[in-house]
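User: Teach me something about this protein's shape.
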Amino acid sequence: QVQLVESGGGLVQAGGSLRLSCAASGRTFSRFGMAWFRQAPGKEREAVAGVDWSGTYYADSVKGRFTISRDNAKNTVYLQMNSLKPEDTAVYYCAADLSPGLTYRSNWYRREYDYWGQGTQVTVSS
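Assistant: First, the predicted structure itself:
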């Protein structure tokens, strides 16, 4: 069983920054594929960024603005969000894939993740 707990959401003005954190339980966290997703009201869930042992991956909508990183010693994955826009407003979820494998880099955005956090609200005002 893996538990994921997100934090760091809040209200920010357009152009501002936030950093989300996702703390995970599990002894083999370093092997997990980790990702951030978001869901805005009335919209489908959208993949934002992913990270595995070999690299980081981003949706086109956030490239150059968001940075995903992980600290394996702290079992934590982060999402640094800069130059925020009102359209970034959503509930942000982190997700864990316990067996990412070699294909993670090519399909991180549409995999069946094993565990999900409860979500944290990000609201960007114009």
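Now, about its shape. The mean pLDDT is 96. The two ends are 40 Å apart (CA to CA). If you'd like, I can walk through any region in more detail.
User: That's plenty for now, thanks!
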